[in-house]
Design a protein that fits this description.
Elements: E1 3-7, H1 11-22, E2 26-30, H2 34-42, E3 46-47, H3 51-55, E4 60-63, H4 68-76, H5 81-84, E5 90-93, H6 99-111, E6 115-118, E7 121-122, H7 125-130, E8 133-138, H8 141-152, E9 155-162, H9 166-176
Parallel strand pairs: 1-2, 1-4, 2-3, 4-5, 5-6, 8-9
Antiparallel strand pairs: 7-8
Helix pairs in contact: 4-6
Length: 177
């Protein structure tokens, strides 16, 4: 099973992290909310003092955050995921952010030997609780194959939108419709 750093334990993220734990993964979570961190521990997860620490020695890091600024800070900022996520690992960003922000974050990570999959979530926290989320995935084929078993712990519908950045773009179209 995988070691996963999970950044963002809000209404959706907490459910998704719990589903990963239920499927045997080791999930180290980080959130600024003490209540969310306590709930993650109650669900069987471990906690970290920063996004960087949650991602240290991880096979995957997952960001489930409310906006692009939060994702950039958690991934690229001080004590961010990029500081400690090992080279060759994958970041899965499940947040709904502007596609140009997705591209910027991906490029920065790529420069540091880390791949990124954009997989924004469709559906609500009710489906997240049940492990029935929908993911609009933008990734290189090999990265999509690598993250599919992780996403399958949290959802039941996966739309391969194409190459890197296309998941974020499809989510914007979905939201506009």
């Amino acid at each position: 099973m995988a070691r996963i750093g999970f950044i963002g334990l809000g209404a959706m993220g907490l459910c998704m992290a719990r589903n990963l734990i239920s499927n045997g993964h080791e999930v180290i979570g980080f959130d600024f909310s003490k209540v969310a961190m306590d709930a993650h521990v109650e669900n069987g997860g471990e906690i970290a003092i920063s996004a960087a620490e949650a991602s240290a020695e991880a096979n995957f890091a997952i960001a489930m955050l409310p906006n692009g600024d939060a994702v950039k800070q958690a991934v690229l900022g001080p004590s961010g995921v990029a500081e400690k996520l090992p080279k060759g690992s994958l970041l899965i960003d499940m947040s709904t952010i502007h596609p140009l922000e997705t591209d910027q974050i991906r490029q920065h990570l790529q420069d540091h030997g880390i791949s990124m999959v954009d997989a924004p979530v469709g559906r609500t926290s009710v489906e997240a609780e049940l492990g029935k989320s929908l993911f609009m995935v933008g990734a290189e084929k090999s990265d999509f194959e690598a993250v599919h078993p992780i996403l399958a712990c949290m959802g039941d519908t996966f739309i391969d939108c194409g190459g890197p950045g296309t998941g974020s773009r499809m989510k914007i179209v979905n939201n506009l419709m």
